[in-house]
């Protein structure tokens, strides 16, 4: 079963599941976001989603964390059916920073909408429901870390947010790095504000966008092609 939980230091979320959970999620992501340049104005958002998808794929292949999780098989059941079997399954997991996973959830909303509009029978499309389940797990995990009032405000903001078309994805790097640098207590207090910043495109975002556009225009590059001049720490305390 796919699960998403908060990391001990509130740095991000841990996405966990068996191989089939994670691989199935990845297959749904690929189907919903479509081929490269299918939605050209969403290239930056697609790139960001693929970054999370890459981490999930690495986890499914055993390249991140491996855990043993109780599978519900009790001794009396083994005796009843007269067989020997382990009572734990192998689960794989990977951590994703909070700003990153929140943007992923928001951006997937747009790809779900576009995929639904083009699907012949969207009500029977497994991939749509799989992605929406993933999004709901992210927001439910967020709900466990903040007040009900903040959660309702964020839900409304995410529902009413303008599309992530031509979103300046470097802003997510900026928020990620800010968030990593905070004290643990500050992260918990700041998380609702971070979620709203991603959805509402406030003045900080607009100013940041102008800087990226100024860097992109002389070279006639797309805004998502401009690298951010900052490095992530090699080791993150999750």
Account of the protein in words:
- The chain is of the alpha+beta class and 238 residues long.
- The protein has one domain (3-225).
- Helices cover 56% and strands 11% of the residues.
- It is built from nine helices and four strands, in the order ββααβαβαααααα.
- It has a four-stranded antiparallel sheet with strand order 1-2-4-3.
- The longest helix is centred in the middle third of the chain and has 21 residues, at 98-118.
- The mean pLDDT is 92.
- InterPro entries: DUF6904.
From the structure above, extract its key features:
238 residues, four-stranded antiparallel beta sheet, DUF6904, alpha+beta
Outline the low-pLDDT stretches: none
Query: In percent, how much strand structure appears in the residues?
Result: 5-15%
Question: H/E order of the elements?
Answer: EEHHEHEHHHHHH
Calculate the mean pLDDT score and round it: 92
Q: What portion of residues is helical?
A: 55-70%
Number of domains: 1
Q: What sort of overall outline do the alpha carbons produce when their principal axes are compared? A: globular
The total of helices stands at 9
| Helix-strand category | alpha+beta
Pfam family, one: DUF6904
